[in-house]
């Protein structure tokens, strides 16, 4: 079987969670005997491929061209949806002009407007930009979905969102779990570099309003624990980052900046709790990694976290400081459940991800 992976052109220049998903899925599919290539082009020749696998329905403009190219060449398409709108954040917590627009015209239209402004500011007037400008956001998503042969969501609840928002009827799909690289985390990690953070509350995520670090800082002001924030702010989040710096207690809050992924296992091992109290998560790869490394987990219920963590996490409401504080205290004071680690090892590993992905391929090729 020969498969071509396709997705956004900035996959490697602006890496994110989808970058990890693409590279790890490729690695473990190849262990199962599947030949996998990656192309970020819009319209490559697909003569030698059995199917095309595209990623990230949240960024439809480029994968729309890739999907339509596959349709013209009669090659079936698998889609890893990675789909979750931050609608509640945009309506309740965004603030400023964008917050006003979200409430005035709705989140979907505001999403189109944001991306339109980015195209203008970046002066990126290629074919995918014009397709997006003329086709719209939701309309483009629905068009490309008409040419998808099988969906590969990361959870059942994610697929239900896709079905509802895209108006799908009885689509073929296989739930493919988000995963932890258990091989990397099983390797003995030197933790001396982070020894000063032993027993901390950790949040490993980019600093952004959607990830909600400001409310985490506020909730922990009266608690005796050290808070460590591992992540950097994007250019669009600098104002939010400055607010976090202003409200943080300098004796109890540490801003580490971006940490290389291969160093995260050592940092997780020093933390007592990992808190990712986002406005939406699907489910938050860092939460899985932290839980596997021995952290108790504080998470939002918004998104797909419950599908993964069930009763093994402590949940809170992202806009309720009291709820966040209580969740932190509860998670900090309870013992770590080794059974949670075993569950992650057996169900949320890249080998399982590859097997489920291959199951999706066979569903359409057979």
Notes on the protein architecture:
The protein is of the alpha/beta class. It folds into two domains: 2-179 and 349-365, Glycogen Phosphorylase B (Rossmann fold, 3-Layer(aba) Sandwich), CATH 3.40.50; 182-347, Glycogen Phosphorylase B (Rossmann fold), CATH 3.40.50.2000. 46% of the residues lie in helices and 13% in strands. The chain contains 17 helices and eleven strands. The chain has helices at residues 17-31, 60-72, 87-92, 96-105, 107-122, 127-135, 138-145, 156-166, 182-186, 213-219, 238-247, 264-270, 285-292, 305-309, 321-333, 338-347, 350-365; strands at residues 2-6, 35-39, 51-55, 77-80, 150-151, 200-204, 227-230, 253-257, 271-276, 296-300, 314-316. It has a six-stranded parallel sheet, sandwiched between helices. Helix 1 (17-31) packs across helix 17 (350-365) and helix 10 (213-219) crosses helix 15. The chain starts with a strand and ends with a helix. The model has no long low-confidence stretch (mean pLDDT 89).
């Amino acid at each position: 079987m020969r498969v071509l992976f396709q997705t956004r052109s900035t996959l490697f220049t602006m890496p994110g969670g989808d970058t990890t998903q693409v590279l790890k899925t490729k690695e473990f599919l190849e262990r199962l005997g599947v030949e996998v290539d990656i192309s970020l082009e819009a319209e490559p020749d697909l003569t030698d491929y059995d199917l095309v696998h595209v990623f990230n329905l949240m960024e439809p403009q480029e994968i729309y061209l890739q999907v339509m190219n596959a349709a013209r060449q009669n090659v079936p398409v698998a889609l890893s949806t990675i789909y979750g709108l931050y609608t509640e954040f945009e309506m309740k917590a965004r603030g400023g002009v964008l917050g006003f627009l979200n409430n005035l015209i709705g989140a979907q239209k505001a999403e189109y407007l944001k991306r339109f402004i980015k195209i203008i500011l970046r002066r990126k007037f290629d074919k995918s930009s014009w397709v997006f400008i003329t086709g719209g956001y939701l309309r483009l998503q629905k068009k490309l979905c008409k040419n998808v042969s099988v969906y590969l969501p990361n959870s059942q609840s994610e697929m239900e969102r896709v079905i509802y928002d895209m108006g799908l009827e009885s689509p073929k799909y296989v739930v493919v779990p988000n995963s932890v690289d258990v091989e990397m985390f099983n390797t003995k990690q030197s933790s001396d570099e982070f020894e000063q953070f032993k027993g901390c509350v950790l949040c490993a995520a980019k600093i952004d309003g959607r990830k909600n670090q400001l409310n985490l800082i506020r909730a922990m002001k009266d608690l005796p624990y050290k808070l460590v924030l591992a992540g950097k702010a994007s250019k669009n989040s600098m104002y939010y980052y400055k607010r976090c710096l202003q409200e943080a207690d300098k004796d109890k809050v540490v801003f580490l900046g971006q940490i290389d992924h291969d160093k995260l296992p050592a940092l997780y091992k020093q933390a007592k709790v990992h808190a990712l109290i986002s406005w939406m998560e699907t489910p938050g790869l860092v939460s899985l990694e932290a839980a596997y490394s021995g952290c108790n987990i504080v998470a939002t219920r918004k998104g797909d976290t419950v599908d993964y963590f069930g009763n093994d996490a402590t949940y809170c409401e992202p806009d309720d400081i009291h709820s966040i504080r209580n969740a932190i205290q509860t998670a900090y004071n309870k013992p770590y459940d080794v059974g949670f680690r075993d569950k992650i090892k057996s169900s949320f590993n890249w080998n399982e991800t590859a097997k489920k992905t291959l199951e999706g391929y066979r569903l359409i090729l057979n």
